[in-house]
Amino acid sequence: xxxxxxxxxxxxxxxxxxxxxxxxxxxxxxxxxxxxxxxxxxxxxxxxxxxxxxxxxxxxxxxxxxxxxxxxxxxxxxxxxxxxxxxxxxxxxxxxxxxxxxxxxxxxxxxxxxxxxxxxxxxxxxxxxxxxxxxxxxxxx
Length: 141
What we know:
Layout: E1 5-11, H1 15-23, H2 28-31, E2 36-42, E3 50-55, E4 62-70, E5 74-81, E6 87-98, E7 104-114, H3 119-140
Antiparallel strand pairs: 1-7, 2-3, 3-4, 4-5, 5-6, 6-7
């Protein structure tokens, strides 16, 4: 699948560990403690749950819905409310695969429509965010 933004990296953790961090949908604040001011969950846990996130320095919340989970292989989510980021119709897929020689290859891709900013500004914003989350997953083990 072609994505508007795609980050592909290999980390030294097994897929089960990476998946556990991603599947903890409400745990994103543990991965981005310097960026998230507040996080609450709605609709329970698992597929269909919604995380309500207030990013530091922003006037409104984002809402993201967990769309799919395939144990140790995939997580997918979409933005359902966004007045903060310069995009709309956002949907992301995170694919995990065992890497040759050990570890996990992570493919984090998203599609969206720019809103209020050019695509050339949004791409580095999102790829930087995905890399920051992957760094945090790797660091926390």
